[in-house]
Records
---
Amino acid sequence: MQADFAVIGGGVVGLSIAHGLLKQGKTVVCIDGTDSDFRASRGNFGLVWIQSKGIGHAPYAAWTQKAVRRYRGFVDQLKADTGIEVSYQQTGGYEYFVDDAALQARAASFEQLKQDLGGDYPYEVFDRDRIKHEEPAVGPLVCGATFYPEDGHINPLQLLHALAHACVDLGFVHLTGRKVVGATQGDAGFSLTLDNQQTVRAERVVVAAGLGAKVLGPMFGFRGLVMPQRGQVLVTEKLPKLVNRPSLTVRQVNEGAIQIGDSKEDVGYDDSETVPTTASIAARAIKVIPALKSARLVRTWAALRVMSPDGLPIYQKSTQCPGAALVTCHSGISLAAAHSELLSGWLLDQPTAPDLAYFSEDRF
Ligand SMILES: Cc1cc2nc3c(=O)[nH]c(=O)nc-3n(C[C@H](O)[C@H](O)[C@H](O)COP(=O)(O)OP(=O)(O)OC[C@H]3O[C@@H](n4cnc5c(N)ncnc54)[C@H](O)[C@@H]3O)c2cc1C
């Protein structure tokens, strides 16, 4: 099998990239591991989010804005191409605060970021009266919230489904349940060995394997600097409308269930749920929305985030193996539109490609 590109990893990052390359007329084969792999794309919180990303790193905030500002057009096109509804709602979103000093500190960091972005950061700070007016269900402990009007949420599994569907319609070869275990490079490009001894040949390779990049990256001259961070998420029964807009704490999906998120735990490659953490996530949510106290939980899960040492994405082309690129990030849902619509230009060295030098692996 010979393709222009082999994309290793078929999570939201790999599929978004494959989608963009296929739209540019390239042939793409995607090799995607097994269900026993860690798969953040199937365990995330579904926010399409700008707020708080890039504090102290304005280029990351700007890149996230660029991605989210393309989202409506991106998902509308996916719907037109596949008929799949991904339930994207760009209502604006909050971070709630129960401590006024913490709210003021966050507002100060947003003000600095706004200056760093030349004034383009349209956040607001809602005091207690304003947030109570917007979200009548908030409890007495909430002293205010930051609000960012371009934030929103999506059904992340439907996004994955729509991307896979769109890619197949564009002629994509999807090898699921297969892992890349070896690679060599010759005059004709890369030769990838799969775990069933099958060989896939491609002129170029994109490593988009999430946590799998730790092992795969060095095969292509990258440093494999990804590490896991566990997040646990809770889901309630379907409820009547309780919250109007999503936040980092709670979001009500269009079918009515409330998702409550999420922890940040450094526990290595352990993606099990734990009662103490789910209890503390629930307690935090009840502080914000007291009515959740009587809601029944129907499901909890844990998944591992794909983190770089500074939490920012890595976009790196290999100098050791020209033609190989590494893409990894911890906000693959929020960045999906940019990964589909802009990264192909970067991978193909087109003059209009975004400048991603800030996100090089060399920064570490
Ligand atoms: C709890 C939690 C909450 C989150 N919330 C949000 C959110 O609200 N908004 C947001 O934007 N992001 C969120 N994220 C992050 C987001 O889910 C990830 O950034 C994104 O899913 C990463 O996608 P990926 O494709 O890089 O990795 P993955 O989804 O992990 O996919 C990697 C794929 O590579 C495959 N693979 C690995 N090794 C090999 C190999 N050797 N050969 C072939 N295939 C291989 C695996 O099988 C897997 O399918 C959250 C993550 C978590 C865990």
Note: The radius of gyration is 21 Å.
---
Amino acid sequence: MIKPRQHGAARVWVLPTGPLQENTLLVAGQAGEGFLVDPGDDAEQVLALVRDSGVKVRGILLTHAHFDHIGAVQPVREALAVPVYLHPADLPIYQQGEASAARWGLPFTQPEAPDVEIAQGQTFTAGDLRLMARELPGHAPGHVVFVAQSGEEPGFVMAGDTLFQGSIGRTDLPGGNHPQLIAGIRRELLSLPDETAIYPGHGPATTVGAERRTNLFLR
Ligand SMILES: [Zn+2]
Ligand SMILES: [Zn+2]
């Protein structure tokens, strides 16, 4: 079983899923309640992780709607009977999931519409865990990041495809905008303390300080 990383009272599990190795995240507070973020593929593994962790999942939060981040949404929402949250600006991409996956020649289960729209500054609470959604468009028009509001230091962010270890999200897809992405990373991520952990949508976790110092795309 995957071991969680501890942040104060909160725990974060990282499960890479599917051919694009998209990081599905499970996050929980001390009380054992939490959220799934970007269940991208491999629904059975995602559900096994939820079961083994004992976390009571209160909802599925989507950073954005590229197909590699939403491929397990339908089976997971049905198994857990929880709502799906997405920023409305990414709804057209969500609805194009099946067509996008087909262009890559990949199988895909098109999910039914999301249940709830994410708004700027919206907070998501599960027991003692609190996450805040912050708009960070540029990789996708409705991209948000989820910032843990535990008051614990160091904090952590679920950053989707905005900032990676040593890289940033691509901006050549429909709705992409490079200057907007860079400005958003500076505004929403580099403004956080250096010790803040970043959980990206692909690849290993990093920190705000490490990317501030070494990420060539942010020079
Ligand atoms: Zn993406
Ligand atoms: Zn991705």
Note: Residues 64, 66, 139-140, 161 surround zinc ion (ligand 1) (CB under 6 Å).
